[in-house]
């Protein structure tokens, strides 16, 4: 891509930001018309602003994708087009969810710091416009060219934002004495449960992007093993979504099965992905060994020495898992060619059994 093309894309992104602000401010003012509203809480600015910004971010991503990736599927077989299209739909949902929770989290924080402040319709509209502009710009940039590394960062950011919002709105302020699943209980349990569902969708999408990257590196000769990678990550995402779909208060047995399955499938997907990669690269092997040793140490310190609670152990496991995934996608970014690689096979092979 030459300098002129880069400048054209940057100009489009700036105009997209302006349009998102104008539309968000206009819709926000219209929806919030009436008496002044508080920033957070019942009847506040937060919920209408979150939904408006989420819809605008989703639309911005769709428009950018259609604008910048037009013709990318022309040489691809049907199965490859379907996988790419499903990924785009999942990302559209993810950007909307990340935006909505981000606005809600910011509103809760501002509500604590600016207690008693009420915004008129125009003020709420401007706040909505700013949120829409920020989210719309990020989504528009993602539509230009989203890498697997960007997607992993989005997953990490979403989990942090969703969990923090769930903490602020938790029914039991001492939830941390038990485990993270307690955040899914109560009136606001939807925040944590919904976070897990959308995070599951993101993990499925990460798996599709990993398959795309591995295909660009390995080619059609490894499609069977690459299909196994994609299926395992899809199963991991589905299991994580199941943790949110079946909250611990409603069905503890299914909830626990989904939670354990998520951990087991994540490990299996990680092992198979590493095996399919060229090498595998030394930095990834070093990270894998280090993470494994830290996980063993974390379990021993929690179970044998009782140094911390199950909640802390869960946080450590999740953090180390995301650390490993970040290392994986960063290494793949180094190895993966930038240009699309259409398959010459008309049908997708079955996942390899060995």
Write a structural description.
Helix content is 73%, strand content 1%. By secondary structure, it is mainly α. It has a two-stranded antiparallel sheet with strand order 1-2. Helix 3 (78-113) runs parallel beside helix 5 (148-168), helix 5 (148-168) packs antiparallel against helix 6 (189-218) and helix 6 packs parallel to helix 10 (310-335). The chain is globular, with a radius of gyration of 22 Å. The model has no long low-confidence stretch (mean pLDDT 90).
Secondary structure layout:
Blueprint: H1 3-31, E1 37-38, H2 46-68, H3 78-113, E2 118-119, H4 121-144, H5 148-168, H6 189-218, H7 223-245, H8 252-276, H9 282-303, H10 310-335
Antiparallel strand pairs: 1-2
Helix pairs in contact: 1-2, 1-4, 2-3, 2-4, 3-5, 3-6, 5-6, 5-10, 6-7, 6-10, 7-8, 9-10
Helix count, DSSP H or I runs of 4 or more residues: 10
Helix content: over 70%
Question: Whole-Å distance between the termini?
Answer: 40 Å
User: What Rg, in angstroms, do the CA atoms define?
Assistant: 22 Å
Mean pLDDT: 90
Give, in order, the helices and strands: HEHHEHHHHHHH
Strand content: under 5%
Task: List its traits.
single chain; 354 residues; mainly alpha; two-stranded antiparallel sheet
